[in-house]
């Protein structure tokens, strides 16, 4: 019976659903790379081309930059088995625009931005915090490991003011994107948590 319970149809398995959505997001990110100039975040063009608030996070400065973020993205469903594809989609579209708005208002001298790393910090934090509340012990353990790792990474970057990733991608890393992504991820996780509880209480 235990084996049969694990053999759920693809449509009923959250891991497979998340895989499909994440692979679709990775494909979208790859296609966007062919239109880098039209999609990169440039604040001076936002009034005429507001889509850059989103798409600036889906394009990258080169193959290494794209590859590192693509790997981190497709690992999500392999790390968080029970993560929700609906929550992923919500974050996939909410985090880019919110991070971009923080850039616009608090970093007015930033003339260009590209990369998914800020969004990834938010995605991983939300998925990890959700995993901590799971009934599955392995999920909870993985959630705590990721939360601790993210806190140490963001804290070290804030303290040291640099990132080792810059050497790999051959360009400066906007560390504020990581901080904004993690901070917004925590706020959005609280929003999701409250929304879930309100929904359950109304049933």
UniProtKB/TrEMBL annotation:
Keywords of this entry: Hydrolase, Membrane, Transmembrane, Transmembrane helix
Enzyme class: hydrolase
Cell compartment(s), UniProt: Membrane
SUPFAM superfamilies hit by this protein: Rhomboid-like
Gene Ontology molecular-function annotations: serine-type endopeptidase activity
InterPro entries: Peptidase_S54_rhomboid_dom, Rhom-like_SP_proteobac, Rhomboid-like_sf
Gene3D superfamilies: Rhomboid-like
Protein name: Rhombosortase
Species name: Aquirhabdus parva
Higher taxonomy: Bacteria, Pseudomonadati, Pseudomonadota, Gammaproteobacteria, Moraxellales
Gene it is expressed from: rrtA
């Amino acid at each position: 019976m235990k084996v049969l319970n694990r053999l759920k149809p693809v449509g009923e398995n959250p891991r497979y659903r998340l895989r499909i959505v994440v692979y679709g997001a990775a494909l979208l990110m790859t296609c966007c790379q062919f239109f880098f100039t039209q999609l990169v975040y440039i604040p001076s063009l936002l009034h005429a081309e507001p889509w850059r608030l989103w798409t600036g996070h889906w394009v990258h400065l080169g193959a290494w930059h794209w590859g590192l973020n693509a790997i981190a993205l497709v690992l999500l469903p392999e790390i968080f088995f029970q993560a929700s594809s609906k929550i992923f989609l919500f974050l996939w579209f909410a985090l880019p625009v919110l991070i971009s708005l923080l850039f616009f208002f608090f970093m007015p001298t930033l003339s260009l931005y590209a990369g998914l790393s800020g969004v990834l910090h938010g995605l991983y934090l939300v998925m990890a915090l959700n995993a901590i509340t799971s009934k599955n012990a392995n999920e909870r353990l993985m959630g705590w490991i990721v939360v601790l790792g993210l806190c140490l990474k963001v804290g070290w970057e804030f303290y040291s003011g640099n990132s080792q990733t810059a050497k790999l991608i051959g360009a400066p890393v906007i560390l504020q994107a990581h901080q904004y992504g993690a901070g917004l991820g925590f706020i959005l996780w609280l929003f999701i948590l409250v929304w879930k509880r309100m929904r359950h209480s109304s049933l």
